[in-house]
């Protein structure tokens, strides 16, 4: 395995970065949005240079190599056999989620989510005229588990027709096990609830854990689900606007494809195509090294919090590069803590209420995908504000 240098600090200010240019104040250190501060894998950079050297950037056609890369990656990495006819391409996982919800629901129906959960789930559901049904995850030690009784009761609601799954789960950091996914699938199938599985974080898995695609668990899960995926999050190429949908059921796939075209998110740019192929065909060692670096950052965070912030605890990280901090003992709401950190510490983290007003309050989400020096500076600023509350 090669050793890639993830410790290199790259100045991203004034580069049009959502993460770094959100605030006019250059002193603010951003540890919020899920965007890595690492350069893309060398193979991706080289593929993009070759495409730039071509010099013509017209409308792009997805080629055989694009499909082959996805099929090979899913089989090699996750032991999931995907048929080419099951794959649809689009611009991003969030647009894909909106398209899938629109395709599989009627206005007024409900979409089930397990809170706290990725904030864009809420807007994607509401934007399609659907209601939100919540099943809160239960704290179990330093992690979360499914409240199976409540989850099943929600699925039994005749208005709930879709379950929007986050796999791995953002922000709780869970990598769902095969048995958990099988149980979710069985409950949903029994109650005629279709599953949309957002698997954008699927490559960001920490040591000791294994990602399992929802549809790969069993035939029933595959028939009753739509999978959303992209190399964008794992390989830090979100700006290249490329994602794909995998759906083996012909009727569901036809409906999703129709909405992708109605919403006009059916065209992808040539750089996204080349980046996906380079990521999946040539960058497997890079992603393995990346996950190890993120894990080491997590251990650094845990040690710092244990020694310097006794009223704060860190939830177990199984997947993603997003740490979930429990600050309930501080006696502050998430929004209050976030504002204090911003104004007094010049460090910006995500308030837990973004991921559920009720189930996210009392938590903060911190992005670990940055050089160690950046993380350490951020932690010092956090300590300055929270240590004496």
UniProtKB/TrEMBL annotation:
Top EC group: lyase
Any one GO molecular function term: cysteine-S-conjugate beta-lyase activity
EC number: 4.4.1.13
Cofactor(s) listed in the protein's UniProt record: pyridoxal 5'-phosphate
Family listed: Belongs to the class-II pyridoxal-phosphate-dependent aminotransferase family. MalY/PatB cystathionine beta-lyase subfamily.
InterPro entries to which the protein is assigned, alphabetical: Aminotransferase_I/II_large (IPR004839), C-S_lyase_PatB-like (IPR027619), Class-II_PLP-Dep_Aminotrans (IPR051798), PyrdxlP-dep_Trfase (IPR015424), PyrdxlP-dep_Trfase_major (IPR015421), PyrdxlP-dep_Trfase_small (IPR015422)
Transmembrane intervals: none
Gene source species: Hallella faecis
Stretches assigned to the Aminotransferase class I/classII large domain: 33-382
Protein name, per record: cysteine-S-conjugate beta-lyase
Alphabetic keyword roster: Lyase, Pyridoxal phosphate
One Pfam family here: Aminotran_1_2
